[in-house]
UniProtKB/TrEMBL annotation:
Cofactor needs: Zn(2+)
Any Pfam family: Pro_CA
Lineage, top ranks: Bacteria, Bacillati, Actinomycetota, Actinomycetes, Kitasatosporales
Protein name: carbonic anhydrase
Cell membrane recorded as keyword: no
Length: 176
């Protein structure tokens, strides 16, 4: 057999790492309800370590991630369950600098359609202005009829070069 055939895939590596993890793991005896009653919605970006960057520990929060940290219907679904069934009260939205979605456009859907013969039902949710995209996300959470607790919904841009969060004002600054 070729050495290549026996080489571990990355998933094999994950499974091996898990076996090690489980060896020292002890049941924390936690409830499913997040201790700090917060849901964090963030981009899936590999450079963003949410727990480290926000001082979060195991059991503290719900993390809801997708490409861009976009508030899609499915994110609303998760937030609704998070608040109504699992007791969270605050929402933190985290986008970041240098996001892959800044280099895409809705043209991506057209290209997909041309290639595979079917247009996706979902929007790409590409953006040019990250601050405005965070505002849009805050607005979608605040105006959702399904999410009952919207007093503490805040949005941020994480700088992937400094590790710092910058808070976004929900109001659009007046053009001057
Ligand atoms: Zn991103």
């Amino acid at each position: 057999m070729d050495a290549k055939d026996t080489a571990d895939t990355v998933t094999d590596e994950l499974v091996a790492a898990n076996a090690q993890y489980a060896e020292s793991f002890t049941d924390p005896g936690m409830d499913a309800r997040p201790v700090r009653r917060v849901a964090v919605v963030a981009c899936m970006d590999a450079r963003l370590d949410l727990h480290e960057a926000l001082g979060l520990a195991l059991g503290d929060c719900h993390t809801i991630r997708n490409a861009g940290g976009v508030v899609t219907d499915d994110v609303i679904r998760s937030l609704t369950i998070s608040q109504r069934a699992l007791g969270t009260r605050s929402v933190a939205l985290i986008h970041h600098t240098n996001c892959g979605l800044e280099s895409l456009s809705e043209e991506f859907r057209h290209e997909l359609e041309m290639e595979v013969g079917q247009r996706p039902a979902w929007a790409v949710e590409a953006f040019k202005d990250v601050d405005q995209d965070v505002r849009q996300s805050m607005q979608r959470v605040r105006t959702s009829p399904f999410v009952p607790h919207t007093d503490d919904v805040r949005g941020f841009v994480f700088d992937v070069t400094t590790g710092l969060l910058r808070e976004i004002d929900p109001e659009i600054p007046r053009e001057r």
